[in-house]
Amino acid sequence: MKNITDTCYQESIKLLKKNSTKFGLLASGQSTKAKRRSYLSIFGRDASMSAIGVSISKKRDLISSARRSLETLAKYQADNGQIPFYVKPEEKEVDFYYLGCIDATLWWLIAIKLFDKNTSYNLEKKLKININKAINWLKCQEHPNFYLLQQNEASDWADLMPRSGFVLYSNALWYWTKKLYNLSNTQNTKDYFNYIFANKKIPQKITKQNPRLTKFLEYKNNKNKFYPSFVNYSFSGQEVDVFGNILACLSGLADNKTSKEITNYFVKQKANKSYPIKSVLKPIKKKDILWRKYMKHYNLNKPYQYHNGGIWPFIGGWWVVLLSNIDKPLARKELEKLAELNQKNHWQFNEWFHAKNNKAMGVDHQSWNAAMYIMAYNAIK
Question: What is the predicted pLDDT for the residue at 234?
C-alpha cells in the first residue's frame, strides 16, 4: 500500500501533465480565478523553478514541457536581456512587472544549468545568445564595488514586501548563478555578502578601499542567527525571510555550521509548525516602519498571510532539500507534512495557506508546488 508521500508524488506528476501546454508549463490549473489573475501563463520564476523539479522526474513528456517553458521565455526575452515576469504566448502578451522582476532572469539561468545536468538536452548551447544577454542585464545591476545586486522595492517573488537595496533572496540566487556559470568575481560576491549580511570581520584593507561599505553596516543590526532580508542605506529587514535564508544555505553562501544554526533556529521558532513552511517568522504590521500601503493590495499581505508570513508549499520543497543535507529524519517528517498540505481539498495543491488557521488561500493546482515536491521527494528517496 502506498504511503502519502508516494501518492503525492504521483499526484504531482498528474497535475503537471494537466498544466502542460505546447508552450510549456502554466503556473496553475484552469479556473476562472486563475484566468483573472493571469496564472494561465508561462511565469518566468514559476516555470523555471518547475523545470528544475521536473528535470529529475524521468518523465519524458514533462521534461519536454519544461524545456518548452524555458525556450518560450527566451523567445520573449527583452532586448536588454530581462526574462519576462510572465508570457501569454497565444495572445503575444509579455509582462515585466511594475518595477521589474529581477528573479525571473536569475531562476531562468539557474534552471537551464540544472535542467541540462539532469537531462540529455543541451539548452545552454542552443540558448547561448539569450544566456549572455541575461547575464549582462544582471551585471548592469551589480554594484561595481560590492559585487551584489541592487533592486527596487517589491521587484522579486515577494512583490508585496518592502525589500530594497541589497536583498538576501536575490543575491543568494545571484551567487548561485555566478557559481554555475563560472562568472568573474564570484568569490568577491560571497565575501561582500558576508560582510554586509553576516558578521564576517572586514579586513582594514577593504574598508579603506570601500569606505562607503561601513554606512551599510550601521543599519545591519544582525546579532541573530539568520541573515536580514535586505540591507540598504536606511534599514535592514528583520522579519526573517525564510526562503532567502534557505537559498543562502543551499547556494553555499552559508557554510555548514551556519546552515545548521539557521535550520535549528527555524525549528526552534516553529517556522514549520503545522506545515512547512512560513515565508517569514516576524510579519510586518501596520505600526511598523516598514509597513507600506501597497501591502493592503487585495487584502493579501496582512500579517500571517501571503508573503508576510503565509505558509507556502513550494518553499516547503526547498526546506526539505536543505534538511536532507542536515537532518534526514526530520526531512522525512517534513516531506510527509508537505504531502498532507498538497493533499488538502482533494489534492488541490493550493498556492498558500494562512499561518494562523491553515486556511487554503490563493489559486489552486500550482505547478511549482508539484514540481518542488518532486524535487524534495527525490532528495529523500
Answer: 87
